[in-house]
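A quick word before the example. In earlier lectures we treated sequence and structure as two separate objects. From today on, think of them as two lines of the same record. Here is Alternative oxidase written that way.
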Amino acid sequence: MLSTTTLRASAPAILATRHLFLTSGTRVACCGLLHGVQTRKFTGSANSFFLATTPKTNQERHLKAFRERSFPHPVYTEAQMDDIKIAHRKAKTWGDWVALAAVRVTRKCFDLATGYRHDSAIASGNKNPYGASAFHMTPEKWLARFIFLESIAGVPGMAAGMIRHLNSLRRLKRDNAWIETLLEEAYNERLHLLTFLHYRQPGLFMRAMILGAQGVFFNLFFISYLVSPRTCHRFVGYIEEEAVITYTRAIADIENGRIPEWENLLAPDIAIKYFGMKPDANMLQLLRVIRADEAKHREVNHTLANMSQDEDPNPYALIYKDSKPHPTKGLDFVKPEGWEKGEIDGGAVEEFMKPGQEWKTGKKPVGGSPTSTTGTTPASTT
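And the structure line, produced from the sequence above:
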């Protein structure tokens, strides 16, 4: 017999087989045999944004067939995820103002494309401020927004990493360990997208929107990064501020009972493995982890925008002498508005911010690894 957990996770897929001329009992049995032990699959939808699909046994290769991921994801504690808050860095320079204006225009277009509206009364904890008939974001609208958001969010890190990679090859110089962090950010955003695709498959209209948006955005970001990489990192920092707002409101909707369909919806296997979540993790816990990721991208890009783009090493790849607050890969020390150069441990950074000195002297700082406050893992020399 199928367990309660299996039936719960497979229920959307079972409903997607309603075109088969089977009784309800036979339908459940057939789907159970089809899925086997794989309890998290794609679901169908009648929403106009999506193409309803039925899971196939050969749709994906089982995750055990792959080796460990090149970019392991840090495991966040519940307390660390609770501390994630909506924050905004005030614009201080002309580049900041340009980046902020671009984000506001992008946000307006993005809201229009995904049908997004959200009232502050809902996020504040009022389950039904204007009655049951009032507009609210349905699961389909939330997933449309998530998929569209993550399909674009993976562009900046890859474009910036590619430009810096080619620059390093062309100039025959090291990149001061920026490339790996940028590529890891792009990889993380793509995993967010793959996770949400386990719940909905976009239809032709949304696929066309993603294709057009990516084509326009990639070329604009590529050219802009050649002109002013600092402004581009600030732009991404502001974009991630908006992403934190989006996921915070989605979490509030679940916690306030406005999306009952997601209260018992299990996280897919790809998320369980990548994020290091518990096997019975649900949609609420998944969104909390993804929001923490976006908050980290917010901090990283604001920090990189504060650095010298040609001379300073990536502060997230340095080894620090002690446990004083410093940039880390995880959420050990959180700075929503980014780290200023003067806030980073001068003992570990100042001496090695001078181009080439570390490689000429052979000296390296001692202390914890870039991803934690303890240990002796050497820093990346990418």
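Notice the following. DSSP finds 13 helices and no strands in the chain. We will return to this example when we discuss secondary structure assignment.
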